[in-house]
Design a protein that fits this description.
Order of helices and strands: HHHHHH
Number of helices: 6
Strand content: under 5%
Structural class: mainly alpha
Bound molecules: iron/sulfur cluster
Distance between the termini: 63 Å
Helix content: 55-70%
Radius of gyration: 24 Å
């Protein structure tokens, strides 16, 4: 039986099942075609294997899809800025913050800091180590600096 559904599956992962206009993509069509070809064989195999095996296969499949999805999500994030650039950003941020203190600009309230961090928490640029993939800064520290802003201008206005 010519089963190349992994290839078709990969194409769907790469190109998406649907186009932005809601129509099915070519990869989607190919995937369904593949599925239709192998479905009777899969059904026969599952009927022989029984329910526990079906459950175990289904959970293996779901785990595979999930780990692929998170690997793709990680790969889609831009590479973080290099160490030198990050050190430069930090020095600049400290300089701006010092200037803000000298100019007696008001400190951020705990509520303002929390509002910034809440935005970061739901942002796709936040990395597991709490750095921002855009600027490379540790968001917990950066959010406390009155002189700093989100590189994507997502934080609420002061
Ligand atoms: S600083 Fe801005 S871009 Fe970076 S994680 Fe927070 S909200 Fe996202």
């Amino acid at each position: 039986m010519p089963v190349s559904s992994r290839e078709a599956f990969n194409a769907v992962e790469r190109e998406g099942m649907f186009l932005p206009n809601g129509m099915m993509s070519q990869a989607g069509h190919d995937f369904i075609k593949e599925l239709n070809t192998v479905l009777p064989v899969v059904e026969d195999a599952l009927a022989i294997l029984g329910e526990p095996a079906i459950k175990s296969r289904a959970s293996e499949y779901r785990n595979g899809v999930e780990s692929r999805r998170s690997a793709h999500a990680m790969a889609r994030q831009p590479a973080p800025p290099g160490l030198l650039k990050r050190a430069g950003s930090l020095a600049k941020a400290i300089g701006s913050e010092t200037k803000a203190i000298v100019q007696r600009q008001p400190n951020l309230t705990a509520k303002q800091v929390a509002a910034r961090l809440a935005v970061c928490a739901s942002c796709d640029q936040l990395r597991p180590n709490r750095t921002c993939a855009r600027c490379g800064c540790f968001v917990d520290a950066k959010a406390r600096f009155r002189s700093q802003d989100c590189p994507l201008r997502k934080w609420p206005a002061k």
